Amino acid sequence: MAVTVAPDPAAEWWTTSEVAAYLGVQVATVTNYRKRDQMPQPDLTVGRTHMWKPSRVIAWHEGRPRPGVGGRPASQSD
Length: 78
Fold this sequence. Notes:
By secondary structure, this protein is an alpha+beta fold. The chain has three helices and three strands; from the N terminus they run βααββα. It has a three-stranded antiparallel β-sheet with strand order 1-3-2. It is globular. This is Helix-turn-helix protein.
């Protein structure tokens, strides 16, 4: 059984893995968001490691439209 630890919002940087944990999605989802410009671009890249300021990711995520809110369609589950 895997234990998921929420990333520390007071940390200086979050990696792709920490952003994924915060959002509750897979790392590949964050990678796809980044490649499609659906999230802020990394604040820093060291080698192949992308890093974001946690405050920037949190602000972006809090402003994202939710299903059925702000024009985003709700799922049609009957």
